[in-house]
């Protein structure tokens, strides 16, 4: 079987939201000897790969079978970016999540370490559960209480990495609310920016949940929103950093409200702000977080100094340069100075 002569980079989940942005970032940094692994299925996710440059694409099952049958199949491995997972927070099949997000991740981690590769993997802010403050990577891991099976599957893998003594030699990334181009395949898991753009086009309004907590107005619940281009750049930065090891929050470190996000989408479209506050489902009210924000001290300690893209700038870029034209990352033209698109007066 042919092997790759140069040191190869593996990107699992490479056609997804963060994975395709990571591939774009690697291309910008001059790296093209990448093997992309994903499950394309019947989605339009394949479109995300079209403008990107890489050495080979393999379906996830083919990749796993190959590394089991021949661990040296891909030659010398520089870095394994393991972003492939079931990322649906509403997935109810716990057995599937364990098999895919835990057991399969363990197999890939063992293989990466045996090959002497740098192992960088996606954890999640969902591992923090209902916490609304003090979201720090050095919390007692056994004190964390994820709220859904997706978050728990990510937590189980973090615990395994720690138990096996591998965590400090790897980089685990607790991504917060990442949004941006190439999330069209995610359905109900798309960001509120993507959903808001669709709602404005259909109804001229955006629906946000009412607040049921004293002192917090409707739509003033906050999140740590991070543009996917920043997430990708942080990911390659930590992969290269000799100081980086262990878990890292990947967020902006700034909390912004849902109202802020909605206004940014309207402004990007040159539309008047029209927000409808809707009842939150009873089942959600007991577990809804009113505040999330990453502490990014560890990221700064690793040497990261660049400010994150401001929410308004990022939303404008996403809406005008990607959503309006249905453009994928890497397929964009220089539209940064283009005027806001015009819409008909009908609502």
Q: How is the topology of this model organized?
A:
Elements: E1 8-12, H1 17-28, E2 34-38, E3 56-59, H2 60-69, E4 77-82, H3 94-114, E5 118-122, H4 149-163, E6 171-175, E7 177-179, H5 192-203, E8 206-209, E9 222-223, E10 225-227, H6 228-240, E11 246-250, E12 256-257, H7 258-268, E13 275-278, H8 282-285, H9 297-301, H10 311-323
Parallel strand pairs: 1-2, 1-4, 2-3, 4-5, 5-6, 6-11, 7-10, 8-13
Antiparallel strand pairs: 9-12
Structure description:
The protein has helices spanning 17-28, 60-69, 94-114, 149-163, 192-203, 228-240, 258-268, 282-285, 297-301, 311-323; strands at residues 8-12, 34-38, 56-59, 77-82, 118-122, 171-175, 177-179, 206-209, 222-223, 225-227, 246-250, 256-257, 275-278. Helix 1 crosses helix 6, helix 3 packs parallel to helix 4 and helix 5 (192-203) packs across helix 7 (258-268). The protein contains 10 helices and 13 strands. It is globular and about 55 Å long. 40% of the residues are buried. The N and C termini lie far apart (59 Å). It is α/β, with parallel strands linked by helices. The longest helix is centred in the N-terminal third of the chain and has 21 residues, at 94-114. Helix 4 links the parallel strand 5 (118-122) and strand 6 (171-175). It is 33% helix and 15% strand. The protein folds into 2 domains: 8-176 and 227-251, Rossmann fold (3-Layer(aba) Sandwich); 179-223 and 256-293 and 309-323, UDP-galactose 4-epimerase, domain 1. The strands form 4 sheets. A 7-stranded parallel beta sheet has the order 3-2-1-4-5-6-11, sandwiched between helices. A two-stranded parallel sheet has the order 7-10.
């Amino acid at each position: 079987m042919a092997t790759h002569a140069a040191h190869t980079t593996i990107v699992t989940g490479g056609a997804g939201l963060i994975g395709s942005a990571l591939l774009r970032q690697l291309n910008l940094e001059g790296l093209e000897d990448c093997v992309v692994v994903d499950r394309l299925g019947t989605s339009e996710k394949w479109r995300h790969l079209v403008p990107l440059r890489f050495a080979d694409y393999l379906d996830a099952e083919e990749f796993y079978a190959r590394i089991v049958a021949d661990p040296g199949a891909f030659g010398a491995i520089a870095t394994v970016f393991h972003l492939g997972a079931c990322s649906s927070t509403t997935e109810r099949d716990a057995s599937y999540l364990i098999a895919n997000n835990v057991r399969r991740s363990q197999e890939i981690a063992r293989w990466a370490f045996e090959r002497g590769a740098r192992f960088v993997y996606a954890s999640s802010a969902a591992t923090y559960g209902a916490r609304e403050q003090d979201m720090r990577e050095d919390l007692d891991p056994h004190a964390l209480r994820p709220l859904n099976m997706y978050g728990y599957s990510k937590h189980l893998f973090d615990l395994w990495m720690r138990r096996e003594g591998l965590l400090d030699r790897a980089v685990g990334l607790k991504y917060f609310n990442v949004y941006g181009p190439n999330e069209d395949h995610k359905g109900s898991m798309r960001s509120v920016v993507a959903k808001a753009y669709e709602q404005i086009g259909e109804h001229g309004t955006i629906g946000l949940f009412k607040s049921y907590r004293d002192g917090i107005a409707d739509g003033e619940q906050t999140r740590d929103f991070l543009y996917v281009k920043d997430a990708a750049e942080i990911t390659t930065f930590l992969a290269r950093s000799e100081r980086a090891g262990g878990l890292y929050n990947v967020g902006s470190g700034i909390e912004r409200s849902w109202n802020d996000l909605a206004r940014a989408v309207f402004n990007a479209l040159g539309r008047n702000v029209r927000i409808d506050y809707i009842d939150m489902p009873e089942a959600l009210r007991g577990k809804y977080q009113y505040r999330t924000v990453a502490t990014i001290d560890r990221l700064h300690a690793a040497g990261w100094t660049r400010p994150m893209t401001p929410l308004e700038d990022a939303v404008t870029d996403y809406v005008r340069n990607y959503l309006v034209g249905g453009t994928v990352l890497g397929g964009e033209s220089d539209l940064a100075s283009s005027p806001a698109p015009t819409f008909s007066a009908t609502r």
